[in-house]
Amino acid sequence: MSFINxxxxxxxxxxxxxxxxxxxxxxxxxxxxxxMLPWKSLLTEIPFVWALFCIIERFSSKRKxxxxxxxNLLVTAxxxxxxxxxxxxxxxxxxxxxxxxxxxxxxxxxxxxxxxPYYLLIFLDIIVLGYYFLRNKKGRDLxxxxxxxxxxxxxxxxxxxxxxxxxxxxxxxxxxxNEIKKAQEMGILSYEAYTIxxxxxxxxxxxxxxxxxxxxxxxxxxxxxKPNLQSAAKGKNLIIIQxxxxxxxxxxLKLDGQEVTxxxxxxxEDSLYFPNFYQMVGQGNTxxxxxxxxxxxxxxxxxxxxxxxxxxxxxxxxxxxxxxxxQTATFHTNDVEFWNRGELYSSLGxxxxxxxxxxxxxxxxxxxxxxxxxxxxxxxxxxxxxxQGQPFYAQVISMSAHHPFTIPEDKYRMKxxxxxxxxxxxxxxxxxxxxxxxxxxxVEELKANGIWDNSVFMIYGDHxxxxxxxxxxxxxxxxxxxxGLEYSYAHMTNIPLLILGAGNTEPQVLEQVxxxxxxxxxxxxxxxxxxxxxxxFGQNLLTETYNLLPERYYLPxxxxxGTSGLLIPGNSFEDNTQYPLAVGGKKPAAxxxxxxxxxxxxxxxxxxxxxxxxxP
Length: 616
Fold this sequence. Notes:
Helices cover about 45% and strands about 10% of the residues. By secondary structure, it is of the alpha/beta class. InterPro entries: Alkaline_phosphatase_core_sf (IPR017850), LtaS-like (IPR012160), OpgB/LTA_synthase_biosynth (IPR050448), Sulfatase_N (IPR000917).
């Protein structure tokens, strides 16, 4: 500490802590924006901390160092939270995340598995300075010298300049659609402040304007087209399987001759398979997939659907099928209160849900009983339901292949090639290999108890497992090897959809674009259930070939997937970036008209759901 003590500039905490925050902003920007020495961070982050420092200099003397250390701790915590949140979710954290702090902390092992040790360097100065000023005699003497008030005139001028620079960074960028671009232009700290004070009120569209005809026009649906396979599975049970973190590239994948998903591969050969199917979830991940699939509405503008929409009596697939003589049940081994699912299930109108209380603590890892237990006990319950004299709709939600994919060794079913061992991608593939085996046993049980032949199955992945921003260099190389080209956002969001038991149909690979919002209308078409009085934002994938899928949360606002590819806007449509579709993608050519229609669809969905009656 003699070096620090010997330099007079430490007596000037304004300068000393400015230098510290220059280094911390470099670290945060390097991780989030991929720029390790960003000159722009000096123009965005430093004016914000200068404004805070000026307040300290102007109004404090006796406890000046304490206030500087407090600001240092708080701003460092914001930078660290932004880094970790970005690595897990790919978005910039805001104060809204505090609303879901219990859910986020429940996946803390997943979050911190993505942390590189050097991220912790952001706290090093706090530890060193805390010890020096509190426990070291020279430090205590120096603290007394620091507690002197700055020159008020100079401090006031610097404060005005700093505040002006902050406003200069914020005001021109308020209209930016891309939240990451917005944070980069404003600065992380200014962006955090902006989100607190910004008016987020959405223009609500009158329900009279929200009609199926208006939605179909925006989506480019031709209602005169004769539905394909309409009522092909009429009277059958509907079983929807939601596979945890399952991405499309796993199907058919072999590593050194070993099939990763042999059971799903066999089913794919007998199914209607949609390789260009995409996730549509938000912060609620799995629970958001449950919401979108069962309502055919988009996720809310922020937060999880289980928090934003569960006070509503939601029109839903369980309610729709119950009106047509079906019994309904959903199965998940986690506690029903995780992500507020108890309220979600009430809002969706399920007859029954089966959670941790039903599945118990047998063979537990991650958040609940293993997929072996899930499928075995679910099979028994479905057999019981099949004796009730009416068809059933069951949604089964797997969970064993959950991030960070470190399954117990007794669940290893394949030997990874050496280059995959110890990697995030390797752990992911091994966990999905186990999940596939458990699912295969479920299929055999359903065939043995007579349910298989009397049911239509829709099998899809709930959301991505390998986000681009969570992968290190070696993982990205492995993904490039698997795809034979650079792993892109279109690949990342690509999940499969398989439909089996849809009448006497030949297996087909259908490359039209689809998303989770399309499952409800597709299922209704197969079962011969009318949607005449049911407003929905999806479409029957067996009838329509054009599609428009607005995306939220994991892609910046204004992003959408269309028949011609994936578009991510910059500050507006004009500076967008486009990617080919995951399968068979050609040069993308998404249009501004599609961009505007996608935004309008989101507005209509938000308006419609928020104006639904509250549940009793």
